[in-house]
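Morning!

This is the sequence you dropped in the shared folder:
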Amino acid sequence: QVQLVESGGGLVQAGDSLRLSCTASGRAFDTYIMAWFRQAPGKEREFVAAISRPGTGTAYPDFAKGRFTISRENAKKTVYLQMNSLKPEDTALYYCAADENSFIRYTPNDYQHWGQGTQVTVSS
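The structure's back. Tokens below.
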């Protein structure tokens, strides 16, 4: 079992940057695929980024490519999401998730462990 706690959200202006962090406790962190998802009011939870166990592989949807970067420090049991050039449409509750599988997957149902989320609000 792994417990996940996100931090780093906040209120920013369009064009600003934020770095989200997710720290894990419990079972060996480096055995999990880690990902970020987000959910805006009235919308489904959507995939934002994922990273392989050693951190050598990443995946992003089109809206995140070139603006968001996921990274991890296994020794610190932490995964990060660097978000640049933020837009009002990036406003959402951002969740950290962990998957016990060995390859990156893209849908929320694939992930077994979730944090409580951290709010990101981007004003225009």
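Headline: The chain has a mean pLDDT of 97.

More detail when I'm at my desk.
O.
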